[in-house]
Amino acid sequence: xxxxxxxxxxxxxxxxxxxxxxxxxxxxxxxxxxxxxxxxxxxxxxxxxxxxxxxxxxxxxxxxxxxxxxxx
Length: 72
Known about the structure:
Layout (H helix, E strand, L loop, with lengths): L6 E6 L5 H12 L2 E10 L6 H8 L5 E4 L2 E5 L1
Parallel strand pairs: 1-2
Antiparallel strand pairs: 2-4, 3-4
């Protein structure tokens, strides 16, 4: 994030462990523009997507049963 600065969209589709997802979501959140989007694939691989949204007081949105996004 230091090299990129701010981003409008982040798409997570790497390791789907809880720890990896929470790390990546947390790292990108500070560099995500207001109204920016975090997309995540395989959202039911762990509870990270849902816990992260709850922690940030954001509503999770769904494109299909496996793909969701959070708006900053």
